[in-house]
Task: inverse folding
C-alpha cells in the first residue's frame, strides 16, 4: 500500500510539474506599442508565439509616455520597443526608480534621426544647421509621428543654436507622416521628417539622413539599439514568458520583410508575424530554447503545430 501511495504521489507531482509552468496570473500577457510599424510587427510576432504557447494577449496602441507610466503602474507587462538613445529621456525616470526593467537588446544596427528627400539634400540641406537657411521652403514645419513620440524634434526646435524658433512639429501618425512625404515628393517640395531603420520607407523613397543631430539622437545618424522592457518583477513572476522575451531577437532584414507584410500586404501585426515565422522557421529553435507552453509542455512542437509548420 505504501508503494502504491508513493507511486500515486510521484505521478501526481509529475503531472503537476508538467502542467504548472506558470501561475494562472501569467496566462494573459499585456503588451503595448506606439503605432510604429517596426514595433507593431515585433509585438504581433510575439503575440503569435504566445498564442501558440497557450497564452492570452492584449496589445494596446499608446504614446510612449503613457506606455512607461502604464508599466510603472503595473497596467502593462511588456514593451518590445525601447529605442536607445532616442527614448532615453522617456525611460530615465523609470530607470532611476527601478519601476521598468530591461530584459534584452532585441535589435542592433537601427538608426533614427531627421531625414529629407534626396532632392532636398542635394539642394543643400545636409545637416540640422542647414534647416534654418531654408526655413521658408519648409514653411517652418517638420513632420513627426504620434503625439508623445516627437520630443526630440521639439528639443531641436527649442535649442537656440539651431535657429529654429517658430518652427512647428506636425504630429499625426507614422502612416500620416509617410503620406505627407509621398505628397511632397510628388510636388518636389521641401520636407523634413523623422526617419528610421528598419523600415520599408528606406526602399520605397529616395531619402537622406541629416548630420548634426548627435546632441538629440546620438552619433552615426542616431545609431540605435532596440530593447525589450517589462514592468518591475515581471520576469521573476512569469519566468517562462521571461525566457521567451530573453530569446526573442531580430535583425534589420528580417524586420524589413515583416514590416512589408504590414504595409504592403495589408496583414494584421499578428498575421505578419505568423507569415514571417513561416518564411524563416529555423529561428524558432533559438527563440524557444528553454521555453515551454503555458501548461509546461515542450514549446517547439506545440508552436510548429499551431502555426502549421
Result:
Amino acid at each position: 500500500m505504501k508503494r502504491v501511495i508513493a507511486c500515486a504521489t510521484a505521478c501526481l507531482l509529475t503531472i503537476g510539474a508538467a502542467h504548472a509552468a506558470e501561475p494562472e496570473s501569467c496566462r494573459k500577457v499585456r503588451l503595448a506599442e506606439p503605432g510604429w510599424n517596426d514595433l507593431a510587427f515585433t509585438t504581433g510576432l510575439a503575440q503569435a508565439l504566445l498564442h501558440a504557447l497557450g497564452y492570452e494577449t492584449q496589445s494596446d496602441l499608446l504614446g510612449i509616455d503613457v506606455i512607461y507610466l502604464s508599466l510603472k503602474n503595473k497596467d502593462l507587462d511588456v514593451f518590445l520597443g525601447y529605442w536607445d538613445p532616442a527614448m532615453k529621456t522617456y525611460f530615465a525616470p523609470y530607470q532611476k526608480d527601478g519601476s521598468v526593467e530591461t530584459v534584452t537588446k532585441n535589435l542592433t544596427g537601427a538608426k533614427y534621426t531627421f531625414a529629407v528627400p534626396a532632392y532636398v539634400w542635394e539642394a543643400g540641406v545636409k545637416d540640422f544647421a542647414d534647416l534654418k537657411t531654408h526655413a521658408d521652403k519648409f514653411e517652418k514645419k517638420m513632420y513627426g509621428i504620434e503625439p508623445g513620440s516627437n520630443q526630440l524634434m521639439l528639443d531641436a526646435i527649442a535649442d537656440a543654436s539651431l535657429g529654429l524658433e517658430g518652427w512647428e512639429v506636425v504630429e499625426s501618425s507614422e502612416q500620416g507622416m509617410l503620406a505627407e512625404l509621398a505628397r511632397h515628393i510628388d510636388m518636389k517640395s521641401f520636407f523634413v521628417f523623422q526617419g528610421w531603420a528598419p523600415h520599408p520607407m528606406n526602399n520605397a523613397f529616395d531619402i537622406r539622413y541629416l548630420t548634426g543631430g548627435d546632441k538629440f539622437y546620438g552619433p552615426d545618424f542616431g545609431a540605435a539599439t532596440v530593447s525589450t522592457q517589462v514592468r518591475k518583477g515581471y520576469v521573476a513572476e512569469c519566468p517562462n514568458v521571461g525566457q521567451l522575451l530573453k530569446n526573442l531577437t531580430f535583425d534589420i532584414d528580417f524586420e524589413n520583410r515583416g514590416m512589408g507584410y504590414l504595409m504592403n500586404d495589408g496583414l494584421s501585426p499578428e498575421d505578419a508575424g505568423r507569415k514571417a515565422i513561416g518564411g524563416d522557421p529555423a529561428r524558432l529553435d533559438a527563440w524557444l530554447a528553454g521555453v515551454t507552453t503555458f501548461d509546461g509542455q515542450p514549446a517547439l512542437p506545440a508552436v510548429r503545430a499551431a502555426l502549421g509548420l
Summary: The chain has two domains: 26-109+224-306, 111-222. The chain is about 45% helix and 20% strand.
